[in-house]
Amino acid sequence: MSGPDLAQLRASAHVVSIPLTTPFRGVHHREAMIFSGPAGPAEWSPFVEYDDDEAALWLKSACEQGWNPVAHHLSLPTTIRVNGTIPAVAASEVEALIVAAGHPRTVKVKVGGPGTTLMEDVARVAEARKVLGPTGRVRIDANGCWSVDEAEHAIREMEHLDLEYVEQPVASLEDMVEIRQRISRMGIPVAADESIRRWSDYEQTLAAGACDLIVLKVQPLGGVRATEKLLEKADNAGVGVVLSSALDTSVGLHQAALLQARRESSHPDALDAGLGTSGFLAHDVVKNPLVAHGGELTLEPLELDPQDLTERAAPPDRERWWLERLERCWKLL
Ligand SMILES: [Mg+2]
Question: Is 60 among the residues known to form the active site?
Fold first, then answer.
């Protein structure tokens, strides 16, 4: 593969630190290394706690995006379908969020976790169903925080709300297998998200019978080509796929969105993507950010915004940390 060498990567790198609009896993800023590659902008943003082996896969993705991208054969601008997101808010806030999002046809409602109770979860999901109406699609995501019993109980309580799927109701693979068996009579698909962090997790998750759907993220899987291989495997196995973001800036979102656009043209029934996440970041780094409205994202050619890159530049100690990380991960490629 024709890719960049370390000097080329370093010379084209900008380290940014972008405030999050809602803190996520105790993090208030999203740090990323953005490259201006010869084939276009590229993003490398493994979460700071990830080890070098994992971060190297994300780097493979960035090298592909900026130096050797997959030809997409699409005429831009084009649009893709994405879900809106309802965080663990009170039910009374749901309608305003859906209206502000331009009434997407699909919403993902966050459930479980320390900040909410089962009663509040059910009320929030019921409100989303009410606002979207019978043709809307309501998916829920517990981020693996329920026990099997809690998940079974919660899903029973929401069975009548016509759920599109339940994402990562429980954390471990064994528990995913068990909850899927326990709710099988309800006909609600179970989606694996956190269960599939690396390419190698896929076979294990599928072989265990732990899910009906998988959530795929381009950067952690090592790029578009790697994700396409998994898509093909999933299609052949009859497993549904939701393309999703890793809390990327618009640069990372763009490559996944191009993949979604190609998928929608070949699979008209493709599930709506989880790529409408740029709003979780208070700023972006491109002139034309991928902002979802009405459940759609419009894709244009990407153009980095030099002013954003300067204004969002990470402090010198963080820049150093990222450059050292780059050097270590580069050696692992
Ligand atoms: Mg998820």
Answer: no
User: Does 6-69+307-332 match 78-306 in CATH topology?
Assistant: no
For residue 1, the model assigns a pLDDT of 47
Determine whether 217 is an active site residue.
Answer: yes
Altogether, the residues listed in the chain come to a count of 333
Around ion ligand 1, residues with a beta carbon closer than 5 Å are: 141, 167, 193
How much distance in Å is there from the Cα of 96 to the middle of ligand 1? 23
Q: What is the pTM of this model?
A: 0.96
Q: How far is CA 180 from the centre of its chain?
A: 23
Report the separation in Å between the CA atom of 197 and the middle of ligand 1, taken as the mean of its atom positions. Answer: 11
Are the C-beta atoms of residues 324 and 52 closer than 8 Å to each other?
Answer: no
> In this structure, which topology does domain 6-69+307-332 adopt according to CATH?
Enolase-like; domain 1 (3.30.390)
- Are the CB atoms for 289 and 253 separated by under 8 Å? no
- Ranges of each domain in the chain: 6-69+307-332, 78-306
Q: What is the pLDDT of residues 10-69, one digit of tens each?
A: 999 999 999 999 877 778 999 999 999 999 999 999 999 999 999 999 999 999 999 999
Q: Is the domain defined by 78-306 classed in CATH 3.60.160.10? A: no
* Nearest Cα to Cα of residue 181 among 158, 157, 212, 204: 212
Q: How far is the CA of 75 from the centre of ligand 1 (A)?
A: 30
